[in-house]
Amino acid sequence: MDSTGGNVLVSKEEWAQEQIDFDAGKGVPQEDDTSNGHAAILGLQHLLTMYSGDVMVPLLIGAIVHFSATQMALLISMDLFMCGVATLLQVHRTRLVGIGLPVVLGCAVQVITPLGTIGKTLGITTMYGAIIASGVFVLLMSGVFSKMRKLFPPVVTGSLIVVIGFTLMPVAITDLGGGTVGARDFGSPKNLLVGGFTLAVIIAFNVWGRGFVKSIAILIGLVAGTALAGALGMIQLSSVSQSSWFRIPQPFMFGVPHFEWSSSLTMILIALTTMIESTGVFFALGDMTNRHLTGDDLKRGYRAEGIAQILGGIFNTFPYSTFSENVGVVQFSGVKTRKPIYFAGVFLLILGLLPKVGALATVVPTPVLGGAMLVMFGTVGLQGVRILKNVDFDDSRNLIVAAVSIGAGLGVSSVPSIFQALPSELYLILGNGVVVTSIVAVVLNSLFKLQGKPKTEVK
């Protein structure tokens, strides 16, 4: 039994029948529809989509805690390797862990500030102790969170997914302009040209492409944009030449984790925000693949993320959770099987073992990634709109739930400092627009349900 009183493992008979139903389809696209060659290319597309966002985390945290160039290279390699481990742990569905959806795991950007602060003030060993503590929390709370399935009807999940997609848009626009708003070349004609060209290529191949070519429109756009950037002298290969050829992962490479209560509590609060965001991503992918997610599905998904966070602390990297960026790749490519994700996970393992090969992916300029992100994040947001399309908005309560939660989430994402006067623990939670949307939508919807159905007026 787990901490919530639920069975940790289903019976062999229940699992066998559940696996038969899962493999038989139940609306889920069959895994055999995509050849290994095509799946490998699609997996590369997923990898390039998440690469920049994930590598950014070790770069920024490493800079905050003053890692040397050698330590930074080691940190990035280990981070990529653990991304592969976490992804395979989640995509492979077992009786204990793995939600079995086409999902990629990486390190969420919301951990940068708290982890950087902990590492700088209390030391990196305390930082890794806090990561392990938050992972144990997620693992133990997986049963509790899985029982909250009824709190997420379409009006709540649709609103949540809309905000997940559209709050990422500033990231896309910033990257398209060059990546750093204060930089001298931010928004330069060269950056806008490369980003706009990448976007145009993706749109062209998605609209006029056919078959497999259409499904890899994002990858084609990334390659074409990078080629143009190279012709304009925007590519630097120094990171490739300076990287080593092979590196074996080892636990506790920067020291044995130290546990301290305040830093652990901080990372547990952050873990709550990532669990909420992962819930929205799970439902988005479930809707895309026509798969009804059960409480046991969610429990396995949360467990996988909890174990991934624990492993992140042990191997001195980071907490790992579902990457919402890659949801847009699934929808945009039209390929909704897990096989490409298996390839993406294996590629990440290889990049972690071969730092020089992994460094090749860093040559993709930021404006190129921004052009691709623009269409992907918009696609995620519109997936939420598709869910909301089936909500009865003639019922004014549904209208209020969606309007207020989406408005609050987008507003907080634009001005997170609105909560800066609150205690730091609350600010860590409420400064995230996705979390605010989830809280507001769940609370309002629950209150309206308690109120009961509105009485029909008698004229």
Strands ordered across the widest β-sheet: 1-2
- Helix content estimate: 55-70%
The low-confidence parts are 1-6
The general outline is: globular
Q: Averaged pLDDT, please?
A: 81
- Output the structural class: mainly alpha
Rg calculated over all Cα atoms: 22 Å
The percent range for strand residues is under 5%
What is the count of helical runs? Answer: 20
Oligomer: single chain
Set down the secondary structure blueprint.
Blueprint: H1 12-24, H2 36-64, H3 69-91, E1 105-106, H4 112-122, H5 124-146, H6 154-166, H7 169-177, H8 189-208, H9 211-215, H10 217-231, H11 238-242, H12 261-288, H13 295-314, E2 321-322, H14 325-333, H15 339-353, H16 355-360, H17 366-388, H18 396-414, H19 424-430, H20 433-451
Antiparallel strand pairs: 1-2
Helix pairs in contact: 2-3, 2-4, 2-14, 2-15, 3-13, 3-15, 4-5, 5-12, 5-13, 6-12, 6-17, 6-18, 6-20, 7-17, 8-10, 8-17, 14-17, 18-20
3D architecture notes:
It is a single chain. With 459 residues, the protein is mostly helical. It has 20 helices and two strands. It has helices at 12-24, 36-64, 69-91, 112-122, 124-146, 154-166, 169-177, 189-208, 211-215, 217-231, 238-242, 261-288, 295-314, 325-333, 339-353, 355-360, 366-388, 396-414, 424-430, 433-451, and strands spanning 105-106, 321-322. A two-stranded antiparallel sheet has the order 1-2. Helix 2 packs across helix 15. The longest helix is centred in the first third of the chain and has 29 residues, at 36-64. The chain is globular, with a radius of gyration of 22 Å.
